[in-house]
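To assess whether ligand presence alters the predicted conformation, the chain was also submitted together with 2-acetamido-2-deoxy-beta-D-glucopyranose. Input:
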Amino acid sequence: MARAQGARRLLAAAALLGFLQASSSFEVKDSSGKVCIIADLTVDFSVEYKSRGQKEFAHFFLPQNATVEPQSSCGSGNTSHPILVLGFGAGHSLSLNFSELADKYQVEELVFHYNLSDATLFHNSTAGEVKRVSHKTIIQAYVGTKYRCISSKHVNMKNVNITFSNVTLEAYLTNGTFSMNKTECAEDMVSTTAVAPTTPKQTTSQVPTTSPAPTASPPNPAVGKYNVTGPNGTCVLAYMGLQLNITYPKKDGKMGLDLLNFIPHNTTFSGRCDNTSAFLNLTFEKTRVIFHFALNASTEKFFLQGLNVSTTLPSEAKVPKFEASNNSMSDLRATVGNSYKCSAEENLQVTKDALVNVFDVQIQVFKIDGDKFGAVEECQLDENNMLIPIIVGAALAGLVLIVLIAYLIGRKRSHAGYQTI
Ligand SMILES: *[C@@H]1O[C@H](CO)[C@@H](O)[C@H](O)[C@H]1NC(C)=O
Ligand SMILES: *[C@@H]1O[C@H](CO)[C@@H](O)[C@H](O)[C@H]1NC(C)=O
Ligand SMILES: *[C@@H]1O[C@H](CO)[C@@H](O)[C@H](O)[C@H]1NC(C)=O
Ligand SMILES: *[C@@H]1O[C@H](CO)[C@@H](O)[C@H](O)[C@H]1NC(C)=O
Ligand SMILES: *[C@@H]1O[C@H](CO)[C@@H](O)[C@H](O)[C@H]1NC(C)=O
Ligand SMILES: *[C@@H]1O[C@H](CO)[C@@H](O)[C@H](O)[C@H]1NC(C)=O
Ligand SMILES: *[C@@H]1O[C@H](CO)[C@@H](O)[C@H](O)[C@H]1NC(C)=O
Ligand SMILES: *[C@@H]1O[C@H](CO)[C@@H](O)[C@H](O)[C@H]1NC(C)=O
Ligand SMILES: *[C@@H]1O[C@H](CO)[C@@H](O)[C@H](O)[C@H]1NC(C)=O
Ligand SMILES: *[C@@H]1O[C@H](CO)[C@@H](O)[C@H](O)[C@H]1NC(C)=O
Ligand SMILES: *[C@@H]1O[C@H](CO)[C@@H](O)[C@H](O)[C@H]1NC(C)=O
Ligand SMILES: *[C@@H]1O[C@H](CO)[C@@H](O)[C@H](O)[C@H]1NC(C)=O
């Protein structure tokens, strides 16, 4: 049904181990001649095989004259996926099976068939069969962007290592050519930031941004004081600095980082409580964070069970509206009637893309006598920090004791000495 065609391109070739390394371009077209997959890539194979009981390695590249096999297809609706099958030599083939999920497409499965009877690649091989190896999800990009990865990407399978490099690839094409926008692989983005070693802060430099260059992390947020009144008076009392850290895809395919400090006097708060749950809603400009506290009745402890975050991302974001929620958390825990306190920064993970960082937090939920914090339960991080001075103090006290004992023994001896003389 689908017609496939291979295109070759002459390139500056590099000789390595006697084989030719070159990137080649391949296209898959549907029955009407519309291009749906373009792949421009260099593929390097390393295969371990047996030769009279001995291990041998075959090393070769995907040749430029590899052909787009007839099994290649653009897929049809929801019944079959696009697939690119590249054949070369005596029955070897590399297949890239694509799939689409939400706004992304990926190489869902990579399959490599190799024919051990081919003596030109597998010299003196004693096994003669065609072998198959495969690997799940190796490449992912946003629909409407080309995937670009100049860096080498290694895919390790049983007896076979495949290395992709200088890859430009796109599936689900609508326009017959590569899209202008691209999704760059993480490996390339790391090497881009490595070239600009100007930011010593490890916080923002980890997620490279295009413009402006990674800036130093913002100062700690100011501490805000928030409370919620329930049927029986104050049921949430929270003092904390609040910072949001959101990682998001940008229109140019790169990743952006949104670090936002809540400014307490511009933050409005509200909430509600019942016997076993309490909500604190904080709104700062277009950003809202909802804290959901719960009661563990068996242990008589309150804890943060959930966080909902919604915000509007900078205009460079691919999707401006951001929402994240997690309702299976277990943080900021203390006994009812006491308060939870932490001077150290705590990073509350909402989703893999969203962190709520709290600073200098003191919080009490459900039972708050006299609208004031009860006894303090310090967080582990603070206790660990306090442990150092305690250890140093204990060591000093021990030293003083040893000196004192030594002095007393010495005095007793000299005293005894006087008596004998
Ligand atoms: C596949 O698509 C057809 C038409 O678009 C639809 O009728 C059918 O229910 C779909 N099947 C599945 C499994 O989604
Ligand atoms: C494997 O290679 C041998 C030797 O080149 C060839 O005769 C055979 O047809 C190949 N097998 C396949 C499935 O292509
Ligand atoms: C294949 O085996 C022959 C005979 O043992 C040997 O001379 C030759 O070097 C081997 N070739 C390779 C590529 O290992
Ligand atoms: C990558 O491939 C392109 C063509 O597809 C070629 O022009 C370029 O020189 C290659 N770059 C490297 C580093 O191999
Ligand atoms: C198709 O590609 C051309 C050239 O890259 C571009 O100018 C045009 O906007 C594209 N059209 C669509 C619908 O993406
Ligand atoms: C923000 O989140 C990213 C990704 O999770 C992380 O690498 C970075 O260290 C975080 N920065 C801050 C200041 O929390
Ligand atoms: C490509 O990126 C530009 C700039 O980020 C954006 O304006 C444009 O809408 C994007 N095009 C597509 C098709 O996503
Ligand atoms: C905070 O609110 C004040 C007025 O209450 C306003 O002047 C100021 O611009 C606001 N700051 C921010 C960052 O929204
Ligand atoms: C309020 O106090 C009453 C009486 O002590 C108690 O029965 C009820 O559960 C309390 N309600 C809340 C929301 O704490
Ligand atoms: C209450 O705490 C206990 C002990 O930590 C735990 O086993 C139990 O699952 C908790 N219950 C709820 C509802 O969180
Ligand atoms: C938090 O988000 C989840 C998922 O979107 C939603 O089910 C839940 O009602 C939200 N909670 C609040 C308090 O808005
Ligand atoms: C709760 O907040 C209101 C408004 O800021 C404030 O007037 C009140 O004193 C607070 N109550 C407590 C117990 O902090």
